């Protein structure tokens, strides 16, 4: 016999159902689970010596390297456990360690107190939501959004056994969230390329819709672990003004995105690097460092955009277990 649901739960379910579902991806263009793109990038970098970064002319590579070298993009290390306490020194299994640190940031922020809905953007199987639900013991409902229609591998059933959970199969670019979801907290690991920009705009639209209905309050807190910056696009990037202000053009932006792929090159001791490996005037280590700097540049533009809307916004290194290790925090 199906258990009775409270009026609050019925309203939440209806709000979750009412979110826009336009632009659902076909099976031929599905996104992998969260975190998979970064692992694919690392694997590809180890197996191939060719990438889009290798198509950037030498003069432009060196020019961008000089420009980015003059910018300060220091990112503090803030690796936590799921409880919110500092992470132990000993390394853990990669994805578990990343998820625990991300959950730790959410828990320690206090943003879950009084929250009605946790939005898991690019949710994949829902492992992050499940870990957050277990660690925080929150009574908030979970709305998992991903454009992959394959549900056989999902953790949704486990989430529903402990509380309210629904899945929305749609591309974030076309999602319009219902203000009836109440006070939300948004999380993601990892949101690939321009999908991060889609997520940021989606939350801004949600806050604007709430304001239009007279529901005043702070903007939706977010915890976004970014990745795969080589898949960012100029037309979707949230802070084009940041790029232009630093003297870079739309074409330079495309080069920055392409060169960010070098950040996933596997670290190799200098003695193991084959002779004559330098490309475009940069050796293996210099290319890897430039790729990481390109990632920080793109995330710094997003951080500036967030600081225009939030009282507190920061970019931190939330894990030492992956090269995709940046977390945007805004509340």
TrEMBL record:
Entry function: tRNA methylase which 2'-O-methylates cytidine(4) in tRNA(Pro) and tRNA(Gly)(GCC), and adenosine(4) in tRNA(His).
Keywords recorded for this protein, A-Z: Metal-binding, Methyltransferase, S-adenosyl-L-methionine, Transferase, tRNA processing, Zinc, Zinc-finger
Keyword Membrane in annotation: no
Top-level enzyme category: transferase
The Methyltransferase TRM13 domain, residue ranges: 98-330
Protein known as: tRNA:m(4)X modification enzyme TRM13
One Pfam family matching this protein: TRM13
Signal sequence extent: none
UniProt key word Secreted: no
Listed EC numbers: 2.1.1.225
Top-rank lineage group of the source organism: Eukaryota
Catalytic activity: adenosine(4) in tRNA(His) + S-adenosyl-L-methionine = 2'-O-methyladenosine(4) in tRNA(His) + S-adenosyl-L-homocysteine + H(+); cytidine(4) in tRNA(Pro) + S-adenosyl-L-methionine = 2'-O-methylcytidine(4) in tRNA(Pro) + S-adenosyl-L-homocysteine + H(+); cytidine(4) in tRNA(Gly)(GCC) + S-adenosyl-L-methionine = 2'-O-methylcytidine(4) in tRNA(Gly)(GCC) + S-adenosyl-L-homocysteine + H(+)
Family designation: Belongs to the methyltransferase TRM13 family.
